[in-house]
Amino acid sequence: MSTFIDRVDPELLPGLAYSQDFPPPTTIEELLAFRELTCAPAPKTVTTTTPAAVATYTASGVPLLIHAAAPGPAPAILWIHGGGMIAGEAAADTDYCWNLSQATGATVIAVDYRLAPEHPYPAALEDVLEALDWLFTSADSLLIDLNRIAIAGSSAGAGLAAAASRVDRDRHGPRLVFQYLMYPMLDDSHSTPSSLEFHNIPTWNRHHSLFAWQSYLAHFPASPLAAPARATRLQGLPPTLIQVGELDLFRDEDIDYAQRLLAAGVPVELHVYPGAYHGYELTVPEARVSRQTLQDRDRAFNRALSTRASGGPPSTPAASDAVSDAASDAASVMPTPSIGTAPP
């Protein structure tokens, strides 16, 4: 029987060395060390081929980094970093956000949300929603086209993006035109075959993820707002791109989420990349599969952000569908101080 290493794309093997020093944190002290490993000391200088600007804003106390590779009016992408909701920072994704801005012509706004366990659920989601509302209300001053705003994230950030898309749909209707979910962290139960299979691999694994979920949920029971895999009412969400590696513990929960989005009438593009593990495109960006991943991402963004310029918002589910879905999910909704009791 082949081992995990045997199944990894040979070009991605060097990236596993980077992950060898990531022991699953089980204490605050270990978590602080883990954060040092997963955060960049400072943004690197990026050479751009178009007029560039960067700015720091706050949205009701939520720090934001804004990357604008071209003058507006431009589309916008709200970017949410990964790190299991226990680590990571917006500054660590500066190069990534610049590259995304240049590839799409969009202004990319990165959110520095609060981290668990110091700030458990719903703090991170509240920060993302605050940033999203700020983006829409500040669009004119930022020279952003209100008809071309997307939300995106990787890993835990993609899970937060998925949750925020649903809350935003319930609060404001279909105003987001696209969601990009890169190997999203969706399921707190970790009961899928891929989660059970990849429990002790030399990258983000089941041990890391279980600790992250425990830290994030704290004393709150899991709910569809905290763990998007638990959501059942998916109608009316924006067109979606989901990317995940074949050897990622989130593979099966991501495939399941894509299938359920499709069943709900949401346009979905799903890519499962052979031989790829969690975080592969970041640790070995020069690999062919990493380059293909970014090309697929850019193509989907450009299609979504360009075609929405003259079109209307995405279609909404029929009222009868929303009522029946909300009723079936009511028992699983957990009220929170700021997020409220919107159906899952």
UniProtKB/TrEMBL annotation:
Residues 304-344 are annotated as: Disordered. InterPro entries: AB_hydrolase_3, AB_hydrolase_fold, GDXG_lipolytic_enzyme. Pfam families: Abhydrolase_3. Residues 318-333 have a biased composition (Low complexity). The keyword Transcription does not apply. Coiled coil: none annotated. Keywords: Hydrolase. GO terms for molecular function: hydrolase activity. Residues 77-280 form the Alpha/beta hydrolase fold-3 domain. This is Alpha/beta hydrolase.
